[in-house]
Amino acid sequence: MRGTGAYLPEQRITSTELSTALGLDPQWIESRTGIRARHRAAPGQAASDLAAHAARDALAAAGIDAGDLALIVLGTSTPDELGPATACRVQALLGAGRAAAFDVAAACTGFLHALQTAAALLHGTPGTPGTPAPGNTARPPGGGPYALVIGVEVYSRFLNPGDRATRALFGDGAAAAVLGPVPAPYGITAMGMGADGTRADDVLIPAGGSRLPATADTLAALDHTIHMDGAAVRNFITDVFPRIVADALDTAGVKTTDLALVVPHQPNPKLVASLAPAAGLDPGRLAIAGQDVGNIGAASLPYALHRAVTDDRLYPGDQVLLAGFGAGLTWAHALLTWPPLD
């Protein structure tokens, strides 16, 4: 990993303001979730716009140009359109004409799925960005190739105004990371992922796809907004987070005490922080940033990682565990030995 970046829309809505608007005690949301505020995209501002801002931030941190990119992989569940891929919109906004670009759809686990996909492709099998086709000079002269991995959501367009649970949790935002060559022993040392599709109905946007296309009836029923079984999702998080940590450590042959930092997805920051003991973790080693942004889905984990970088919580040689989970149901992890970023 060579650089990180993030972007939050300008409009900020505090939990006190939102609680009051919902007819609740002013402290109701923050006391239950730990979320103090979330951001809302401006009218006309799409997922690709947020993603491009975060991408430019990450490219600047990595010290490379958009033209150096061989690959853009973007995770989102709130794309600009059902097609084409939002990553293609970002490619155009960045002027990254040499980069292949596509989306992955794994909801809040999207960034980690994108990260693992990009890392695998950068190893350079025939036909991937690591081995450019004739006429495609994707590999930059300075080393490379480089991949841009993005998580972005504009959840505010998909919320039921009367649903306290989803309005309390979700916000808008984007975060990105640049992958590229790093010297041994730095880099990604272990990865894993999983899914349980029998629980796809626990949290979803029912309408707008091929199963339930948009009609006047689906619009009237608010089926284009997020539907969530709060108790089921809470139980899933409580079970899966300690399991992800255990599986990752077992696969890599390391101990919890070897970890300098654990960066989890954080749909409910208070809940996730409370699970540290069950995962055998020192709560102080968790990177929790969701209190300032709410659940920004595929952007939550990379946003927390970016905050850890900018807050100087990571040093070369640190073992860092990224642990994601989300709708689908899906989960994933990546263990990194943090490189020097200069």
From TrEMBL:
Domain Beta-ketoacyl-[acyl-carrier-protein] synthase III C-terminal: 249-338
Residue intervals of the Beta-ketoacyl-[acyl-carrier-protein] synthase III N-terminal domain: 146-197
Listed GO MF terms: 3-oxoacyl-[acyl-carrier-protein] synthase activity
Name of protein: Ketoacyl-ACP synthase III
Cross-referenced Pfam families: ACP_syn_III, ACP_syn_III_C
Record has Acyltransferase as a keyword: yes
Record keywords: Acyltransferase, Transferase
Signal peptide boundaries: none
GO biological process, one term: secondary metabolite biosynthetic process
